[in-house]
Amino acid sequence: MNKIFRTVMLVLFTSVLLAACGQSDEEKQAAADAAAKAAANAPVPLPAAGADDAAWQKYLVSVVTRNMQGVKTNHPFMYYVPAGDSMAAEDARKSQLDNVGATVARGVLPGNMLAFGGPDSKATADLIVEAFANANDGSFKNVVVLFAGAAADQQRVQDAIAKSGAELRFVEMK
Questions:
Q1: pLDDT by residue (tens digit) across 2-55?
Q2: How far is CA 10 from CA 1, 16, 34, in A?
Q3: CB proximity list for 127: less than 8 A, separation 6 or greater
Q4: Which residue in 21, 57, 69, 157 has its CB near the most CB atoms, within 10 A?
Q5: How many Cβ atoms from other residues are within 10 Å of residue 45's Cβ?
């Protein structure tokens, strides 16, 4: 009987020691959360020319995530502008322009971000310029407009949004 009691106590003592040596559930969850956050903030490389829309959209999300400083909302307005001369691409750009134009016309609350990007920097810049053509003076004060594109298009976009009062954040695609 004594021998059984000692064996049971030894097993219990060993299991308590082993449990104390491992990470707690909270520590494991914190480590998993930190790893997920690091993976989410890791830069996505610029997709190759001709890459699919999903790769470009993932790239745009990565650029926006790394440039959210000072933005009060966790849900920026993101606009992917597809490239190409096909009817589908032209229709998609027209639809995006209608969407952005409506957003610009009604205004955006301060602390928000509008982010634009796509494989064709000129097409993206054209969309921004056209959408902001009728923006009211100062209607985008304290709003960030992020443009992921070519340096050659940066000034054109800056000039287009200037009267709205928006802050331009430019990320060169390279």
A1: 566 555 455 555 555 445 555 666 766 766 555 555 555 567 788 877 778 889
A2: 14, 10, 37
A3: 79, 81, 93, 96, 97, 100, 116
A4: 157
A5: 9
Alpha-carbon Rg for the chain in angstroms: 25
Residue 134: phi, psi to the nearest 5? -110, 20
Phi and psi, residue 169, nearest 5°: -115, 120
**What does the alpha-carbon distance between residue 151 and residue 70 come to, in Å, rounded to a whole number?**
23
Contacts of 135 (CB under 8 A, 6+ apart): 104, 161, 163, 164
Across the beta sheet with 144-149, the strand order is 77-80, 113-117, 144-149, 167-172
Token code pair at residue 15: 């299991």
